[in-house]
Design goal:
The chain is an alpha+beta fold. The chain has a domain of about 40 residues. It is built from 6 helices and 6 strands. Strands 1-2 form a two-stranded parallel sheet. Helix 3 packs antiparallel against helix 6. It is extended.
Length: about 160
């Protein structure tokens, strides 16, 4: 069989399965046991490669806020569902639908000036001399860096990204 990779976590897939099949009686443990052997879990966090810079950076911000108990959700899909009226409507997702009302993310912020650290993909450019010293090359790479900022800055960045 051709090897396949999951594009989401088993918990999220189980939640989606239950929404699409409300009449099926299936436990989470049974659902995970029925995964075919050729379908492998993705290990994006285990690799230091950039998949989608924008979405990965947003997830890193969300993870930092969640791990510091500032927000109650760690899943980007759940956060988005709480901020728009309909995730299946493209206009609502673009904040252009008639039934759109502003729903804000609920934060537990007691100290907005506290410093936090989170990972972030950046594209720095550097100039490299070749061995002969005659020409210089401008190289741009994707690099994962640790970013530091206040809770307030992180919340603003997250909301702008969403």
């Amino acid at each position: 069989m051709q090897k396949r990779y999951l594009l989401d976590t088993m918990k999220n897939l189980f939640i989606t399965f239950k929404k699409e099949n409300p009449n099926e009686s299936c436990s989470y443990s049974y659902f995970t046991k029925q995964r075919p052997f050729y379908v492998k879990p993705s290990a994006v966090d285990g690799r230091d490669t950039c998949q989608c810079k924008m979405h990965t950076n947003t997830q890193y911000m969300l993870n930092a806020i969640y791990s510091n108990k500032i927000i109650s959700e760690s899943n980007m899909t759940q956060v988005i569902e709480k901020t728009v009226s309909a995730t299946d409507n493209r206009l609502c997702m673009q904040v252009n639908c008639a039934s759109y009302n502003i729903k804000e993310i609920i934060y537990d912020t007691q100290n907005k000036s506290r410093m936090l650290k989170w990972q972030e993909w950046v594209r720095p450019s550097e100039i490299i001399d070749n061995k002969s010293g005659k020409c210089k090359l401008k190289v741009t790479k994707n690099v994962k860096e640790i970013t530091e900022g206040t809770v307030e800055e992180l919340m603003e960045n997250l909301e702008w990204q969403l």
